[in-house]
Amino acid sequence: MEPQAPECLALLFPSQGPGEFAARRFPHEPLVDHGPVSRLKGLSRYARMSPLQLVEESPNKDMLAYVSAGRSRTEQRVVTRASAVRLFKRGCSIDVGRLNKAAGPAREWTRAMERELGLEPGAVFCNGIASPKHSVVPMHFDGLETLIVQMTGRKRWSVARCTQVSFPSDGYFPGVSGDRRSPFAESPSYFPKRFPTQMPRHSRRFLFETGSASFLPRGWWHTTYAVESGISLAFGLLAPHWTDVLLKLVRGLIVQEAWRTPLEVATPKQRADARRRLRAAMGHLRADLTAVDPLLGIPEPRRTGFRVLPGWRMETASARRAARLVGPDGEPMALVLPKEAKEALKWMLVRRSFNAEDVEARWATMGRALLAQCVAQRIIEATS
Predict the structure, then answer these.
(1) For 298-352, what is each residue's pLDDT tens digit?
(2) CA distances from 120 to 9, 47, 80, 81, 182 (A)
(3) CB 69: neighbour CB atoms within 10 A?
(4) Other Cβ atoms closer than 10 A to 153
(5) Angstrom distance (rounded) from CA 252 to CA 244
(6) Cα-flanking dihedrals φ and ψ of residue 159, to 5°?
(7) What pTM did the predictor assign?
């Protein structure tokens, strides 16, 4: 059974209350938390594996190896499973690739994260990292949000915000000759000409132990050193940025005949006429774009109404903050909630239909967070 909201992120970050990570941290604020690996339910199966076993049993034929190239430089090499095994034994870190390609706990957790964070299906993936003792992943930043879980072993981390570029959509390894994870042969146009080659002086340092978890926003430098041989899971979280929203809106214009009309640009007169028509069309563009909710791709509701989906009911609500729900498929779900949120959920299930204003007037921020969780979990839905 997949981890259920708010369990997934609440289990990873026990210092955060239900819904706090999604509401206050993601996608801009870094976070490090610690706890026993046993709290992670299905993921704990990776804690029972050796790093070499992770490489040997990966569902991927090709993997990414970090190989020393001399003079403090590292190469990324795409290698076969057999070569990855040999390189791991020689002391190279191995990224075994997508673990969520196959059915199992990695896939279940990626889907749970997508629901909790309101991301589209396929926006979260999980890579497995096998690290021999003393291996190093060199300084770099990623072009997406990352969530790392240490399943076995210990690892030293050093992290710092990149001040040279904000919110990059592309990753960068200063000490690596070519980033095999990037689809671009050259650096993006918005990158500066030079990046530092050493971690900034203000870097934060901490020790990752078995069960530790961290979240890093895109564009944060980080490097790791394996104190012990171990396994870590790297969840990539593709949070949409404003360019994504704009492109989605523009792609939505294809349903309108006026925006599908081919341009006539063979002669100077045709090109001048095309420019004139474009200026006229731009005057109507705002109305065309705002007809669609850019984040959801559906018409915007005229009011903020909600209804409980058929089949949902609450069985128990214990004094220990666990609310036991049963859905239309008969599967039980346990939600760990503060007392007020539990009362709000019970009120919604009894009312069956209500307005967001009613919830927010009674329970303020906690009510808004609960609404978001219930929508993500498909307990309630918006009505127009």
Answers:
(1) 334 334 688 898 888 887 655 555 678 888 877 777 777 777 788 888 888 888 8
(2) 17, 29, 31, 31, 22
(3) 14
(4) 20
(5) 12
(6) -135, 150
(7) 0.71
